[in-house]
Amino acid sequence: MKQLLFVLSVLVATLASAQTTRAKVSNAPMELTTFETIKLLEPDTLGGKPLMQAIARRKSDRQFETRNLSLKQLSEILWVANGINRANGKRTVPSAMALYPLQTYAVLANGIYFYNPQKNQLEPVVKGDYRNLAGKQSFVDTAPLNLLFIAKGKSATDNFQGAIMDSGYCGQNVYLYCASEGLKCVVRAGAKEAELLKVMNLGENYKFIIAQTVGY
Ligand SMILES: Cc1cc2nc3c(=O)[nH]c(=O)nc-3n(C[C@H](O)[C@H](O)[C@H](O)COP(=O)(O)O)c2cc1C
Fold first, then answer.
1. 213 sits in which H/E element
2. Which of 186, 193, 210, 212 to mutate to test the pocket of ligand 1 (most atoms within 8 A of CB)?
3. Of all protein residues, whose CA lies closest to atom 5 belonging to ligand 1?
4. Is-contact 64 184, C-beta < 8 A?
5. Domains detected in the chain
6. Best of 64, 147, 188 to mutate for ligand 1, by most ligand atoms within 8 A of CB?
7. Of the candidates 132, 167, 168, 137, which has an alpha carbon nearest to the alpha carbon of residue 62?
8. Does ligand 1 lie within 6 Å of residue 57's CB atom?
């Protein structure tokens, strides 16, 4: 009996400390004063709404505030979109033969960043506000985050179809995360692709697949 009580008290203390740690992470908007590598936070895998509630709330939105996302939200969006969720390096999204043909980029107000899932960080690609190239609808220009899913190298040609299919899983994960966190998003086929790839200095071996706007 004593042992059982001890185990229970350790469990309660562990859960309480997990709650405390979670409560400490701020949801203050990012300031983006400098254009440099953004170290992303580990995802809070104890957070969020139950899956069925998130699915019930999933929808597309086309009106966004200019308010920036928090580092926590940005980190979790990238993780659900294309992050690593297992020690073997596999991802939060499935991919035929685990080829992962897609790269994820984040277009923020101060520049375009490459998402490095292995290092869990955003790496600077080009400085400046290029949000207007991330789509053809006006809300894109001022929304705090536009994700770009881009096929790379041989994937852009040999595995183009695989890249298109994979992008559906990435987009849906982001949709469900947004529904769970009270954020808005819309997946978009339209972007100023040629201008975008040029400004990002990505040659003909890269193909734009789809974009997704996220914000409040
Ligand atoms: C492949 C694909 C491309 C889309 N492209 C756009 C787009 O360029 N612009 C847009 O506003 N919505 C786009 N959408 C969102 C759809 O319009 C939206 O999902 C549809 O109207 C159903 O609404 P719901 O997502 O709220 O259920 C796209 C959706 C998909 C799956």
1. strand 207-215
2. 186
3. 188
4. yes
5. 2-215 (3.40.109.10)
6. 188
7. 137
8. no
* pTM for this prediction: 0.90
Which atom of ligand 1 is nearest to 136's Cα?
Answer: 8
Ligand 1 centre from 104 Cα, in Å? 19
Cβ atoms of 66 and 142 within 8 Å: the answer is: yes
Ligand 1 centroid to Cα of residue 189, in Å, is 8
Whole-angstrom distance, CA of residue 26 vs CA of residue 90: 28
**DSSP code string of 169-197:** HHHHHHHHHHHHHT-EEEEES---HHHHH
Q: Is residue 59 within 6 Å of ligand 1 at its C-beta?
A: yes
**Percent of residues in the chain assigned helix, strand, coil, to nearest 5:** 40, 20, 40
What are 166's two structure tokens? 């994979």
Give tens-digit pLDDT for 37-47: 999 999 999 99
Q: How many CB atoms lie within 10 A of CB 148?
A: 26
Contact 18, 46 (CB under 8 A): yes
With bands split at pLDDT 50, 70 and 90, how would you rate the model's confidence at 11? Answer: low
Name the phi and psi angles at 75, rounded to 5: -60, -45
